Amino acid sequence: KMVLGIDNLSRGEISYKYPPANISIESFERSVQAAAEPQQDPPRYTMGEATFSRYNQAVAVFAAIDKAALAKFYRWGQPLWQQAYNELGSAEVSFNKVTITALDQLLRAPDIEGDIALIRPSVMFKYADSGLEKRSDSDKLMLRLGPDNRRVFKAALREFKNELNKEKKI
Q: Is 118 helix (H, G, I), strand (E, B) or coil?
């Protein structure tokens, strides 16, 4: 599942059917707030601090992990990651390159400050800004983290990427 998750992230996709980890996050719907403007069609909502704070614990845990030790663990398990990646039908590609591409994909996510406007034309929420709505699933996940968590998470991702590249070029 981890290898599939990283492969999907390298393309900006997220596998909701086969998540690499189960992280308990409060319901998105309960954290979204109605926008102040009355009588909009469709109604508008905002994704703000209540939404962003749902990820505080997950981001804090990842930020606290020793990135040198994580890179060492990654290199130790690299033959297994490559084997699993080969089993997905991608034997001609190095899983190390896919991992770096996935990290870069997350690091390229837009940095938007403040609340983000949403609409709910049906059951699902969508970004009111069509440019944001067209972004990749991984970008949208990074937006849901909020500005503070996104800064911390990106800093941890950069540190991990640097550790991966330190000892042995991948």
A: strand
- Condensed to tens digits (0 to 9), the pLDDT of residues 54-108 reads 899 999 999 999 999 999 999 999 999 999 999 998 778 899 999 999 999 999 9
Entry pTM: 0.84
Which H/E stretch holds residue 44? strand 44-47
Would you give the DSSP letter of residue 134? T
Yes or no: say if 87 and 2 are a contact pair by the CB < 8 Å rule. Answer: no
Residue 70 three-state SS: helix
Round to whole Å and give the CA distance between 114 and 104: 24
Instruction: Give yes or no for a contact between 119 and 148, defined as CB atoms under 8 angstroms apart.
Output: no
What sign has the CA pseudo-torsion 103, 56, 117, 120? Answer: positive
Please report, to the nearest 10 degrees, the dihedral formed by the alpha carbons of residues 52, 54, 57, 61 taken in order: -70
DSSP string for residues in 45-57:
EEE-HHHHGGGHH
Structure tokens that stand for 29 in this block: 């719907």
Element (H or E) spanning 147, and its range? Answer: helix 147-167
